[in-house]
Amino acid sequence: MPYPSRLTPPLLCLTAVLLGSGLALVLPGRLFWVALLAPAALGLAWWGHRAWRELRLWRGMIAATPYRMALYAPDQRLLWHNARPDVIWARKIKPLGPQPRLRAVLQAVLDHLPEAEREAEMNRRIALHERADGQPFEIRDARGAWERMRKLRLPGGEVASFSVDITRAKQGEMALAESEERLRHVLEMAPIGIWKLDEAGRTIFANRRLIALFGEAPPADLVESGLFLTSGGDPKGPFGFATLGENEAQLILPGRHSRRLLVTASPWVPDTHGRPACVLSLLDVTPLRAAQERIEELSERDPLTGLVNRATFRAALERMVADPKGGVLLLVDLDQFKAANDRHGHAVGDALLVEAARRLRAAVRPSDLVSRLGGDEFAILAFGANAGFALPLADRLRQALRGGLAMEGLEIPLSGSLGIACAPQHGMDADALLRAADLALYEARGAGRDSAALFEPALRERAESRAMLREAFAEALAAGELELHLQPQQDLESQRLVGAEALIRWNSRRLGRWVSPAELLPAAAEAGLLLQLDRFVLRRAVELLAEWGDRPDAPRHLGINISISTLHDPAFAQEVEAALRGAGVPPERLEIEIPEDLAIRDLPAVARTLAALRELGVPLSLDDFGGGHSGLPHVVRLPVQRLKLDRSITAGLPDDPKAYAVLRATMALARGMGIEVIGEGVETQGQAFALRRAGCHIIQGWLIARPMAAEELVPPLLAEKRRILA
To answer: Rounded CA gap, 17 and 15, in Å?
Structure first.
């Protein structure tokens, strides 16, 4: 449809005036016609002016309207539109020329879309254009702006298109939808059940956690379900729940375990339709309540054995010592439990503990209390018992424990050592009685397996002596009272001195005597000074090797004993390297002896240190091989170059066939692995001959020499000799 020209109204008026004037001139004598046609011309002029004014108003209204309007011919040609030239839609269709078709228009304005999406969107809009039923639909332009469009078919077949920008409204709508989606996601993923109900108890909303709590959709009517038993609620609150604080409730589900819930109820609030509604928040605290009950049980019971634990035992002990009737306290340690646990694993260790607990309970009176204090230590309280009852009870307990435990095809021995103390004779309070029983247990362990000891005052004196020994040892390190004595190692073939073992010796000024290694090492361990002791041995051994230099009468290597705790220290290998480098001693001259009580479980922990020592070139030897603690796993897994035979094997030579069989097997193993064997504890020629016959050529023991001071084994050179050698 052509757009009307803005000159049309004035032209109509001018035409009317000229027409009237022309008629007057042509028909001057016919005044009748002039009188008749003049008003018509004036009327036509007035109508033209009015149409011009209305057209101006329509043009202003169209320019001011927020709607983008267009008119399409029945054949989908664009006849007219009111889009301003600066609008992106108008700029894109301008190159198409006059009256472009709808498909060309759409191709131009949708050029920002990928081809597949553009084709689909074009087809959608063309279908809506053909339908033109006035229903609104939404479109999006290249800038991301949104428009709502309507298309109406006119009586002549033309299609009128109207669209308005709804970007802000759409953004608000999308933001609201995103907010609602986030809120719904939060509600769905919340760890608590959320249940919105109307005033009649009908479900309005239930989140995923609530459905999981019920195992299915929650009941449609809470009031009639009868699923809850509440406690501490408010009859005036929603469904009997208090709106302040939490309500404890029990959920009864048919065919399922009941659940304990914490329920929080909101006050009644109007929903979107103005009807009262409330929200229940349901937190399943069943596991928490079970854990709390378990914690309460654990606060009194040992979880493994079911016996009362240390805290409960302590309270009972205090009651017993406060009772005028007194009673008996027995402390029980399982013999060789650590070795069995290390060798066979924690499952076997736990089985031993459970079986020991069962046997101890069966051996006491119903009124007595059996407790596990921790590890493999148990305690028995015999209330009202006296000293005459104590020893028979201890014998009964030892007999009950005695006997192996069959497990996984193994027969694992089980026995215990017991320390006994009686109240009030041996202690007027709980701590004193425990100390007395502990001293008695220490005495029983020292006597060997499956033994019992009753406290006596002499035990306290011996304990004080051990404490004094610990204090004196701490002073000895600082005072330089420790020294190394050396025991030589001889080659039976060449009868030459090939090496020596450094043994710690202590002449205590405070105690006024030589302290034996059997006393010294436990004192160092109890004082927590084993690491310092090992470092002293390392420094002194390196000093001796540096003093000897290349002297032919000095041992070619010097072995030192290092404790397991030091081997656990990852910095020990670096300390060895620093000591050797600082003294200028070749690493192959220092030998580290690995203790015989190294358990299989310790191997991974010390493997890094041992590997670092071997990388330095320091040889390693396994001490007391074949004595029971060390064995084939140690040889296979440890990077050792020497095995030192246990004294028990050497002592059986040459007459004990079992000892000789172990010797031959050891030599065969050593030869196969390229490991040197040293015979320790050799005291007779017969033992030396048996070792030599088996292929062991290096021996150490009293037959060669007793341990001696370093100056006796390698006499210091005189100054003149030093000068000549220099």
So the answer is: 6
